Each structure stands twice: as C-alpha cells, then as structure tokens.
Amino acid sequence: MRRSRTLTRYVAREVVLYTLLGLTLIGAILLLRNLGRALDELLGAGFQASDVWAVLRVIGTMLLLYALPVSFLFGVLLAVARMASDVEIVAMRACGIGVRDLAVPILALSLACSGVTFWLARDVEPAARREMRDLLASLIARGAGLQPGRFRHFGDVLVYVDGRGGDRLHGIVVSDRSDPERPLIVFASEGRLALDANGSVTLALERGDIHLDESEALGERDVRISFERFDYALDLAELLGDNAKQRPKEMSWSDLRAAVARARGSEPSPQLPDEPIEYELDLQRRLAAPLAPALFGLIGLPIGMRRARGARAFGALWCAGIAFSYYGAQIFFASLAEQGWLSAAAARWIPVASFAALAAVLLARSRRGT
C-alpha cells in the first residue's frame, strides 16, 4: 500500500509539472495566434491598454477549453517518456509494477481535467464568446468599423469618413439607397458612433445637410435639409456580420438545449437559422469535450512508455500529432453532418469511439510488453 501511494504521488507530480509547462507554452502559442485576428479591430478603434488586456483575457478563456486537454496529453507523454528514457519504467516492471499501477494516477488526473473541461465547455467558453461579441461591438461603436479615407458598405448604405480623433469622426458622408424610390445623401462635419443598451448602433451626426432625391415628385428639384444634430441608425448586423447574432457556441446551456428541442420539433421554428443542425452539433460538442483529457491520458501512457532517445522531443511530436488527429476528425465529421451525411451525435462521437478503441489497443499491447 505504501509503495502504491508513493508511486501515485510521484507519477502525479511529474504529470502535473509537465502539464503546467505545456499549458504555458501551448496557451501562449494559441493566444498570440488568435490575438492577431483581433488586432485589426483594436488598431482601427485607436485601442487602449485596457482593450488589449480585455481581449487577451477573453481569448485566453475561450482557448482554455482546447489548451487544457492538449496540455494534459503533453504532460502525460513527457512525464512517462522521461521515466522510460531514465530506465525507471524497466525498474518498476522488475519490481512488479505494471501498466495498471501507472494508469491509476493518470486516470485520476484525467478525471479531474475532464471535470474542469466540462465546466469550461458548458458555461465558461460560451460566456467568453458572448463577452467577445460585446467587446467587438463596443470597439465598433468607437469607430473600429470605419477607416479614415475609405468607403465602407453596410448593406445598401455607404459611409465615408475623412478623419478621426479619438471617438470623434470628421468629414462624414452617408449615401443611403435602401429605399430606391427615395435615396438620400447626408453630409456632416462631425459625428460619432454610439452603441445603446439594445445593441443598436447610431451614427450621431452634427452640423450637416441631408440631400433628398425627389426629382419625380418635385419636378427635378433637389431637397436640402440642414441640421445641427441628426441620429442615423445603422444595422449592427451589417457591422458585425455573423457576430451580431448569438451563435450556438455563445448560448448558455439552457438556451442551447431549448434551441435543440425546437430544432427537433416536427415544424420548423422561425427562431432558428436555416441550418438548425448547428445547435445539435454544438450540444454534442459540449457533451463530448470532457472525454478528451481521459482519452489523451490513456493514449499518452502506452506511447510514452516506449524507450527512445530524445524522448522529450518525440513526446512533443506525438502530442501535436494526436491532438491534430483528434480535433481534425471532429471538424471533418462535423462537416459531414452539416452536409446531411451524418447525424450530429454520430459526427461528434465517432472520433471519441475511435480514440477510445485506439487507447484500449495500445494499453493491451503495453501490458503484454510489446
């Protein structure tokens, strides 16, 4: 019993240390890679230090769902590979310690990681995605969607801004042809974008003119209306694209389950998009995500036990290959489900079942010493 406890603490400590190292490295790589996508919005808005930290925090929270299982795989592979390269595995086998004894602490840690992953997939990641959408909306309200000296289409509305200082816009031209029978052009000296509590974006214009084309009704006469202030409403959906709508990945657990229930109904619901399978896919994704750490741990153990020179380097390569294969399979089968070739449940659980079978085969071979 004493030997088992000592071994459990020793293996667990090694795995945790390498997992934390992997989480630092993998998290930094993923964070920097995804931060570049948000920098364009930040630069366009004249970002502040608080904006950068907010984006870093939200992106980091979103990526933790994937970084934690991969980091745990990294920790298992490198810890066991280090023990194998230092002949500790051989010594353990000589003392009667087999794969089952090594698997106990790894399985316990994988269950803990699975619990955290379930919490991340169910509550934390969707909340972070909603916060990211709100953050981008606030950046757009400060002018991130309008670049000085460039025309920008928002549906049938064309907007031009000559310059910007802070959140103030200068030399604004708005051409609105949403109503072909009554097109209008607005010129304003200054203005700013404002985001209200309802998520609507208003272009608050100051000191300008409205030119109405009323040629048919007024006999080729141009109508000009001067104003000191004119609030021009813009559609947030045109500014944010898909980010303006709450996507399945942004929904809370209860809202997503309700949406899936409506999608499974016999009659189509107008509250759902044209492809309701997206909701089913995301529900199954959240249910399957917690199994990734357990699968990675059980696969990483027998692979890491193989003695080889440069065990740490090979462990990192195996980590990249296994993680890429697993999440690549998730994406591939999800695309098949979106095309109607598979059900959402099958698309999410086929990779899980395949990697579970692979783990069983590898563990069985390790017990036989092959």
The unreliable regions are none
Q: Label the structural class.
A: alpha+beta
- State the shape: elongated
* N-to-C span: 28 Å
Instruction: Provide mean pLDDT, rounded.
Output: 78
Number of domains: 2
Count of β-strands: 6
Largest beta sheet: strand ordering: 1-2-3-4-5-6
Helix content: 55-70%
Note the total helix count: 11
What's the SSE blueprint?
Layout (H helix, E strand, L loop, with lengths): L1 H43 L4 H37 L2 H7 L4 H46 L6 E4 L2 E9 L2 E9 L7 E12 L5 E13 L1 H4 L3 E13 L1 H5 L12 H11 L13 H12 L2 H14 L6 H28 L5 H24 L3
Antiparallel strand pairs: 1-2, 2-3, 3-4, 4-5, 5-6
Helix pairs in contact: 1-2, 1-4, 2-4, 2-9, 2-10, 4-9, 7-8, 8-11, 9-10, 9-11, 10-11
Would you give an account of this structure?
α1 runs antiparallel to α2 (49-85), α8 packs parallel to α11 and α9 (291-304) runs parallel beside α11. The mean pLDDT is 78. The protein is 62% helix and 16% strand. It has 370 residues and is an alpha+beta fold. It has 2 domains: 2-141 and 246-367, no CATH class; 156-234, no CATH class. The chain has helices at residues 2-44, 49-85, 88-94, 99-144, 215-218, 236-240, 253-263, 277-288, 291-304, 311-338, 344-367, and strands spanning 151-154, 157-165, 168-176, 184-195, 201-213, 222-234. It has a 6-stranded antiparallel β-sheet. It contains 11 helices and 6 strands.
